[in-house]
Amino acid sequence: MFRQTYGQRASKHSNPAAKLLLDTMERKKSNLAVSVDVTKSKDFLAIVDAVGPFVCLIKALTHVDIIEDFEPLLIDELQALSSKHDFVIFEDRKFADIGNTVALQYSSGVHKIASWSHITNAHPVPGPSIITGLSSVGLPLGRGLLLLAEMSTKGSLATGSYTEDAVRMARAHRDFVIGFIAQRRMDGIGASENDSTEDEDFLVLTPGVGLDTKGDSMGQQYRTPREVVLESGCDVIIVGRGVYGKDYHLTDKIAEQAKRYREEGWAAYLERTTAL
Ligand code: 5BU
């Protein structure tokens, strides 16, 4: 799958959210996702509108509990921008509880995430029951789930056998689990001799991407789009502060940065799919 185009891969996926994301990437020639971690709805919408033309996906309202002035109308506005700019919505909720609780968190409450977010994610730490809980809500709606198999932070515990077990859990639920938040390609990881993995195609969405710095003061570590897409075989680069920095209000500058990351990410993908 490493060398196949996003479009070729889209046609082989049965999960509607995976298909939508891969088709969007092909159509918009973008493997850039922007993560919009700001606290005011107004800033959030302005950034989404500015980067919308350049992204395949918005990681948003990432994380919905960050927004101070949340009102359900914000979801309608996000959906309107998703239609205007043609991007997929991923709520980075990082569910991590028992199946019954996550099903309620996913379907209900103020945010009703399953009703508007094409993709969401979960920590594998509770075991397969977290997938059962979330898929009872998300699968009938055509949603997709990513498992957090690895993290970008210094000292992350999601390594080794934990990561392998996460991939095994995904392999057993391929109708709903479409891939991972991880730092490298995961196809075949943790597979036994009896597993048939040749047609396996997990999407890998990767945070911890930056062109100008190597990290922040709180443990975040950045790699370049080239390292992530070409060398590690990931599919989507997730960029937050590298795109909007501290200048939430300078939408021209934000759009320029989004364009820059999109070009870098796409060039790495083209090199990957055309290399002999
Ligand atoms: P940044 O501003 O590009 O550092 O933001 C990265 C985003 O990705 C932010 O929303 C994090 O919560 C998210 N993230 C991450 O950085 N690393 C991880 O391993 C995971 C999520 Br999982």
Summary?
This protein is of the alpha/beta class and 276 residues long. It has 10 helices and 8 strands.
Strand content: 5-15%
Element order: H for helix, E for strand? HHEHEHEHEHEHEEHEHH
Mean pLDDT: 94
User: Mind describing the biggest β-sheet?
Assistant: 8 strands, parallel, barrel
Total strands: 8
CATH homology superfamily: Aldolase class I
Rg for CA atoms: 17 Å
What would you call the structural class? alpha/beta
Strand order of the largest sheet: 1-2-3-4-5-6-7-8
Shape: globular
The distinct ligands, each listed once, are: 5-bromo-uridine-5'-monophosphate
Provide the domain count.
1
Describe the structure.
The chain is an alpha/beta fold and 276 residues long. The chain has one domain: Aldolase class I (TIM Barrel, Alpha-Beta Barrel). It has 10 helices and 8 strands. It has an 8-stranded parallel β-barrel, surrounded by 6 helices. Strand 3 (88-95), helix 5 (99-107) and strand 4 (119-122) form a beta-alpha-beta unit. The longest helix is centred in the C-terminal third of the chain and has 24 residues, at 251-274. It is globular, with a radius of gyration of 17 Å. The protein starts with 5 loop residues before the first helix and ends with a helix. The model has no long low-confidence stretch (mean pLDDT 94). Bound molecules: 5-bromo-uridine-5'-monophosphate. Pfam families: OMPdecase (PF00215). GO terms for molecular function: orotate phosphoribosyltransferase activity; orotidine-5'-phosphate decarboxylase activity. The active site is at residues 92, 94, 97. Belongs to the OMP decarboxylase family.
